[in-house]
Amino acid sequence: MNTTLNQDAAVAQPMVGFTAAQYKSSYKPIWCPGCGDFTVLSSVTKALSIMGVPPKDCAVVSGIGCSSRIPAYTTCYGFHGVHGRSLAAATGLKVARPDLQVLVAGGDGDGYSIGGNHFLHACRRNVDMTYLVMDNHVYGMTKGQPSPTTEPDWDSKLSPGGTGVRVFNPMVVALASGANFVARAFAGDLHGTADIIAQAMKHPGFSFVEILSPCVTFRPEQRDWRKLVHAPEAPVTDDAALAARRLMKDDGLNIGVLYAGDRTPYPAAPRQARCSVADLEAEFEL
Amino acid sequence: MSPSDGDANAPVPATLEAFMVQALQMELDAAQRYNEFADMMEVHNNPEVVEWFRKMAVIEGKHAAHIMAQMGWSTVPALSANAPRLAGFEAVEGAAVDELHYLMQPWHVLQLALAGEERAERFFAQMARETKIETIRMAATTLQQEERDHVELVKAWMQKVPQPDNNWDQDPDPPRYDD
Amino acid sequence: MQAQPALPSSVSIALAGSGGSGVMTAGTLLLAAAAKAGAYGLMVRTSGPQIRGGEAAAMLRLGSHAMSSLDDGFDLLLAIDWQNVNRFADEIVLGARSVLIGDPDEGEPPDVYKAMGARYAPLSLKKMAKEIPGSWVNMIALGLSGALAGLPLQALQDAVRDGWKKPDTLEANLKAVAAGAAAAAQIAVQLAQDGGAMTQLQVSAPIGQRRWMLSGNEATGFGALKAGVRFVAAYPITPATEVLEWLAPRLVKVGGTLLQAEDELASINMIIGASYGGVPALTATAGPGLSLMTEAIGLAVASEVPIVVIDVMRGGPSTGIPAKSEQSDLSFAVSGLHGDAPRLVVAPTSIADCLGATQWAVHLAEALQAPAIVLSDQFMGQSRVITDRPPESGHVAQRLAALANTPDYKRYRNTDSGVSPMAIPGTEGVTYTADGLEHSEAGIPSSQSRDHVMQLDKRQRKLTLHDYGSYWADIEGEADAAVITFGSASGPVREAIERAKARGIVMRLIVLRLLAPARPEHMAAALKGVKRVIVVEQNHGAQLYRYLRAWYDFPAPPASYHRPGPLPLRPAELLTALLQWSDQS
After folding, report:
1. What SS3 state is found at C232?
2. Where do the structural domains in chain B lie, given as residue ranges?
3. Closest in A30, A140, A158 to C49, CB measured
4. Predicted confidence (pLDDT) per residue in C307-340, tens digit
5. Under a CB-based contact definition with an 8 Å cutoff, are residues A94 and A50 in contact?
6. What predicted TM-score, i.e. pTM, was given to this entire model?
7. Which residues of chain A are within 8 Å of residue C264 when distances are taken between CB atoms?
8. C341: nearest Cα among C397, C400, C298
9. In chain A, what residues touch B61 (CB-CB under 8 Å)?
10. DSSP C259
11. Least packed by Cβ within 10 Å: which of A225, A227, C41, C293?
12. Chain centroid to CA A153: how far?
C-alpha cells in the first residue's frame, strides 16, 4: 500500500477541467517565507481550476517586482515585461487574441506608480481581462521604498520621515475611470480570494482585484491585517454612483466585491476578413 | 506566532461517504501545505526546517492513505471545491503562510504542527457531537483519536528539539544593505 | 636584465554563508578593521536572488596599496555554512595554496570547491559561538579570517566596537572575535606544516593624510553635493537606489530637496524643471530607467537645460541581470537620442573617482548648459573601498546666467563659444520660453534651415570647443603599445599592465573619463609614439572599440578584448590577452 501519498499522482483526472495543482509550475518561488504572494498564487490556481480554463489558453502578464515574478510559477503562458507596462502589453494581447483568458498581475509599485497612467486607461477601455494587484504598501524588490499606497508618515531611507503625500486610492480611480468590476481581497484568505478572482474572471470587461498581500520583510506589522480585514457593510452593487460614495469612505480593509457593473466591454477584434488585400488596390487605380 | 481558532463554520456532511471525503481532503491539503512550506524553506537555505516540514507532510500523507484504505478507495474521489474551515481563514489542519519566517527553527515547525493537530482534534470532536448519524459519529470519534495520537507524537518531538533562543529571528545582515 | 620592482602583494578573502549567518556584516567589519590597521582594501558582494535568507558572499582584497580590482583567486574561503554557496564557484576561485575553512557540523564543502585543490581546515564555528552566550557566529568568522590575514586583534575589535548597536551584546562578540583569532593561530601552525602559511598583510599605520571608506554609490552622491546639486528626483532601481537613498537625508541637511517620483519619465522631467528654475539637478538610474529617460534628455539638449543623469550600469539588455555589472550602456549613452543630439558622457575610473567624476559632470553640465550622463556601474557602485582621501578638484556648478535687463536678450544667441547666457526665472527683463522645438536665437519655434543649422552648430560647438583639461583621461606610462579602456575595467587592466611590466613588456594605459564629445586632437596627443592600440571593455558588442573606431584615427586598426558580465574582468585573463596581442605585433 502506498503510504506516502502524492496528491498529484493519485487524483483521478476529472473528465473536464484541471486541478489547481496543474496550474502550478515546478519553479520554486523566491518570495520570502511568510509572503502573502504564496497564497495569491494558490488562489489564482484555484480560481483557474474553478473556471476550467486550460493552461494553454491562459496568459499571465506581469511587470517588474516581487509580485510580478508570478507568471513563471504557473503553467500558463506568461509574459514578464518591463516595469509598469503590463496592462498595455495585456491589452495588446487580448485585443489581438480575444480567445485567450488574460490575467494581469503585479504589485502596488509597478501598478500604481509607474503603471498609473496605464491603469487609468485600461479601466477606461474596459477590455475583458482580470487585473490582480498584490498590494503590500512597499517596493519590495528594490528593498523597501514607499509606494503610492504607503502611509504618508512611513519612514524609509528614500523618504525619511515619510513621503508626506496622500495615499493613492486605486478603487475609486478604477471605478471613476470605467472598470466594470472592482473588488478587494486579502491574501490570508485563500478560498475567499480564489472566489473573488473566479468571479472577476467570469465578469465581462476590465475586472480589478486589489489583494492585500502582507510583506513580512519590509512591513512585518502587516501580519495584523488578518485581524483587521472585514466583510463590506453593504452588498455588491451595480450602481456606480453608489459604489463611488461608499468607496470614498472605504477604510482600505473592506474585503469583497464592491462593484460589479454592466458597462459595455471593449469589443473584441473582428476576426472575419471582409475583403482581400488585393481588393484594396482599387482606391489607387485611376 | 499564534494559530487561528474557533468552531467549524459548515454543517456536518449528511452521509458517511461525504464525511470521509471531507476528512481525506483535510489530510491531503495539509500534506500539500507542508510540502509547499518545505519548498519555501529550501529556497531560503533552512535545511533543518525543510526536513521537519517534509516529515509532517509524510505523516499527513500516511493518514490520508489510511483513510483511503479504510474506505476501499484506490484513487482519490472527487473533492469539493471548498474544504471545511474554522472561523477565520485557514483550513482546519493547515498553518497560515504568514506563520513562517525564513529563520524559523524546528521547534517552530512543531509548534505550528501541534496547533494544526489540536485544531483537527477539536474539529472531529465537534463533528462527533453535532451529527445525528451513528456511523459518522463513530468515524469522527476514531479520527479524533487519531488526531490525538498525532498531538502526543508532536509533543514528544518538541521535547527533543532545542528551544529557540531570544535571538532566533535576528539576522545580522539586513535585507537592504545599510552601507 | 633590469631589476623589476616586486609586485605589491595582497591577500584575498571570501566569507560565505546563507541567511542569518551575517557574512555581509562580517565582510564590512573586516574591511573596516583593515582600514584601522593601515591597509587598503576592496570589498565586493554577491548574493542569491532571495530578498532575505539567501546565500551570500563578501569578497575582500586587502593590501598595502590602493586597489581597484579583485585578484584572480582567493587565499581563503571561509564558509559559515554551505547552503548554495557552490553557486559562487565562478566568482570565488581557489588554488592549491588556498585555504578552505568550513564548519564540519554544516557538512562537507561542495565538490566544486574541493576540486579546486585547496587545503581544508574544518572548524566548529557554530559551537564556538554557542560557547560564548550572546555572540554571533559571524564574529568568530571575522576574528578567524582577520587574524589569518595578519590583522591585529585590536583592529578587529575596534572595528566591531565602532559599528555595534546593542551595548549588552558587545562584550560577548568581542570575545567571539578573540576566539576566532585564537583559532587562527592554531590553523596557521597547521598550514605552515602543510604547504606553507597563508599570505599575510604587510602594513604599517598610514602616514599623513586620513583615508576614506565608501562605496561608489556613496561617492557619486557626495560628488553631486560637492558640486552644488540641490534638487534630486528619485525612482528606485537596482543597482542605483543607494545613490538616491544616500542623498535623501543629506540633501535636506544642506538645504536641498529630494522628491520620489512615480517613474523615470517623471524623475527626468522633474530635474529638467528644477534646473530650468536655476537649481542644479540630478537623478540616478540604471539601463532600463535610462531608456525611459531618453526623450527628455533630448529635450534638455534642445532646450539647453543642464542636468546630470547617473547610469549605474548593470547586465543588459532589457531587464537583464540587475545585480551584476557590465559596461554595455556605452553605445546607448553616446548616441541613443533621436535627432542630432550631442551630450556629455563621463565615466568614473574607479570607486573613489565616482566622487570626482560626478562632481566634474555637474560642473560641465552647468557650464555648458547640456545634459551629462555619468556611466558608473554595479561593480563600482555597490563595492566598498579603502582609499586615500580624494583630492579637492574645486569643480562646482557655475552657470552662465543672464543679467537682469540685458538689452536685446536672446536666450539662444549664437556666441563664439556656443554657450549663451541662461535667464533664470525671477530675473527682470529677460523672460523667455525654453523649447524642445527647434528655435531661433530668441527661442521662438522655427522650421527655418538657417535657424536649425545655427542651433545644431551651437549645441555641438559648445561641447567640442570647451577646454576639458587633463582630466578627460588618465594616461600612464610610455610605450609604443597602448591599452584604452574606461570605468571599472581600468582596475584589472592596470594590474595586468603592471604584471606585464614585471616581465619586461611595457604598455601605456589610457583610461578615458570623458567619452563624449570625442577628442580627436587630445587622443592624437595621447597616442604620440604609439604604434598599436588594444581596447579593453566588459560587454559583448565591443561598444567602446566601435565608438573609438567611428570617431578617432589610429596608427593601425586597433585590437579589441571584450567580454560581457556577469563575472568581473580579472588581471590574469587580461594579462594573457595583452601578452598574446603583444606577441602578434
Report:
1. strand
2. 16-76+103-160
3. A30
4. 999 999 999 999 999 999 999 999 999 999 999 9
5. no
6. 0.92
7. 114
8. C298
9. 3-6
10. E
11. A227
12. 27
